């Protein structure tokens, strides 16, 4: 009986040492991971500038005009940066800002060759255009994003949901391809 107790005690000590040894290895790995994260946080983010084209309707709403812009892509994607520039509008008297100032961009995500652009309800609520205006609003968004060669289609959503139309004139329920016919 005494021998059984000694063997049990030795087994308990041995298992404790094995577990402690494993824990030591895990702590060393955790420390390495933590050090890597800390090192990455101390690196300064690069402020990459890229040239893009954004598309605005001309003042008589007969075509979309490409405008060259240089944008900073620090802390955001190039797609969101392009949409931000488009939403800022234009000061050029020969061009028109078509996205309402009250509209908010909720995000831009890319899955494969399709970009999803999500706006809040302000896009619909504050848009005052008719069928031509709606076509040029959609065309501005679609052509700006499909100017990136990897983006072939654009899905416009409102508050994260697909909608059939923005103002009843154009089907936006599915991803749309580049609208070259508006470039003339």
From TrEMBL:
Cited InterPro entries: GerMN
Annotated Pfam families? Germane
For this protein, the record's SMART domains field holds: Germane
Q: Which UniProt keywords apply?
A: Signal
Q: Which domain of life is it from?
A: Bacteria
Tell me the ranges covered by the GerMN domain, including all copies: 79-167
- Which N-terminal stretch is annotated as signal sequence? 1-20
Name used for this protein in its record: GerMN domain-containing protein
| Source organism | Anaerovibrio lipolyticus
């Amino acid at each position: 009986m005494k021998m059984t107790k000694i063997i049990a005690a030795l087994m308990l000590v041995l298992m404790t040492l094995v577990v402690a040894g494993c824990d030591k290895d895990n702590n060393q790995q955790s420390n390495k991971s933590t050090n890597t994260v800390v090192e990455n946080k101390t690196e300064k983010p690069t402020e990459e500038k890229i040239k893009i084209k954004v598309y605005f309707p001309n003042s008589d709403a007969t075509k979309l005009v490409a405008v060259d812009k240089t944008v900073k892509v620090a802390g955001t994607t190039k797609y969101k940066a392009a949409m931000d520039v488009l939403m800022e509008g234009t000061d050029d008297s020969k061009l028109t800002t078509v996205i309402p100032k009250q509209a908010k961009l909720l995000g831009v995500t890319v899955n494969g060759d399709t970009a999803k652009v999500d706006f809040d309800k302000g896009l619909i609520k504050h848009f005052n255009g008719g069928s031509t205006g709606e076509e040029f609003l959609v065309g501005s968004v679609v052509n700006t994003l499909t100017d990136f060669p990897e983006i072939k289609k654009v899905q416009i959503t409102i508050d994260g949901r697909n909608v059939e139309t923005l103002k009843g004139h154009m089907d936006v329920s599915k991803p749309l391809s580049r609208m070259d016919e508006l470039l003339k």
